[in-house]
Amino acid sequence: MQFSKTLINWYSINKRSLPWRQTKEPYCIWLSEIILQQTQVKQGLPYYETFLRAFPTVFQLANANESKVLKLWQGLGYYSRARNLHATAMYIVNELNGEFPKTYKELIKLKGIGDYTASAIASICFNEPTAVVDGNVYRVLSRYFGIDTPINSTKGIKEFKSLAQELIDKKKPAEFNQAIMEFGAIQCRPQNPDCEICPLNISCLALKQKRISQLPVKIKAVKAKKKYFNFLVFISEDGKTILKQRKTRGIWQNLYQFPLIETKSEMDFDNFKNHIKNHKLLENVSFELSLYNEKSLVHKLSHQHLYTKFWIVHVKNLKTEGTAINTIKDYAVPILIGNFIESFIF
């Protein structure tokens, strides 16, 4: 089909030189695809290189401590990706003798690997003609074929996957999949694509109908919830603070954080000091309280916005086992807390 040939030809001329395109090693392709989920190439590239230096093969990754994996992941967000990456590496080493499955059907069974990642590995590494569909692919297909089915609807997911599968070049599946993703990333961009030089502009329905800015269609997400986080940053006279690993499921699972108090709204200094005086870590303890940031730091996640304040609590001694302040940079923490640690002078 001319559509596929045009894309592959465009890709051969315009593709970016990226390290994971120099190999068909499943471990490298898998690692790159997991890192690049929800992450732009320019941000993900240094993480990819760092991970490969630390864990050159799936065996080193499998044998690593999860806390080290999370520490290297710090700043990328969506930490479940890192936990799943580590768990799957251990499964591949311990159950599959270090050999990656070679088919889409087997790859998709692995933890943290969905339709997109399984398709990418199967096509790029093993030449299986199974189409990838990511945000870039949705955009190219919806514009070129003038499809207004919402891309995040059940119908849309099936429709675009089926269309991509029809279009894939059966003899060159790796080239086609990488071509259509790259085309969406640097040619058919979300905003202000340069349609004048697009090799598909003659037959692009969105361009003909002047609907470039309207496609693809996406169902509006539920409004993000506001949450109010207050971290207690203890500082004792012997140079210790309190860091606890977050064991609950959800955001930041297995990362470390300062003691957290969640409130229903923002609190001023006097009300908060009164609110915490009976906290288990402060009960019958003399302490001095100060507020690091008068204005809440807003940390935006996909489903919630965290309005965060860091409260500095000076005490003589801690009521629980502490962590030496000069070691806290060694712990895997959410980027929100990492930024605070970098900026605060203990």
Summary, kept brief:
By secondary structure, the protein is α+β, with helices and mostly antiparallel strands. It has 14 helices and nine strands.
Give a written overview of the molecule.
This protein has 346 residues and is an alpha+beta fold. It has 2 domains: 2-214, Hypothetical protein, domain 2 (Endonuclease III, domain 1), CATH 1.10.340; 225-343, Nucleoside Triphosphate Pyrophosphohydrolase (Alpha-Beta Complex). 42% of the residues lie in helices and 13% in strands. Strands 1, 5, 6, 7 and 8 form a 5-stranded mixed sheet that branches. A hairpin with a 3-residue loop joins strand 7 and strand 8 (304-315). The chain is elongated, with a radius of gyration of 24 Å. This is Adenine DNA glycosylase.
Number of helices: 14
Shape, principal axes of CA atoms: elongated
List the secondary-structure elements in sequence, H or E.
Answer: HHHHHHHHHHHHEEEEEHEEEEH
Low-confidence stretches: none
Number of discrete domains: 2
CATH topology of the largest domain: Endonuclease III, domain 1
Mean pLDDT: 94
Do you know the CATH architecture of the largest domain? Answer: Orthogonal Bundle
Largest sheet: 5 strands, mixed
Give the % helix.
40-55%
Number of strands: 9
β-strand amount: 5-15%
Structural class: alpha+beta
CATH superfamily of the largest domain: Hypothetical protein, domain 2
Roughly how many Å apart are the termini? Answer: 63 Å
Q: Report the C-alpha radius of gyration, rounded.
A: 24 Å
Task: Please write the CATH class name of the largest domain.
Answer: Mainly Alpha
EC number: 3.2.2.31
InterPro entries: A/G_AdeGlyc_MutY, DNA_glycosylase, HhH-GPD_domain, HhH_base_excis_C, HhH_motif, MIG/MutY, MutY_C, NUDIX_hydrolase-like_dom_sf
Organism: Seonamhaeicola aphaedonensis
Enzyme class: hydrolase
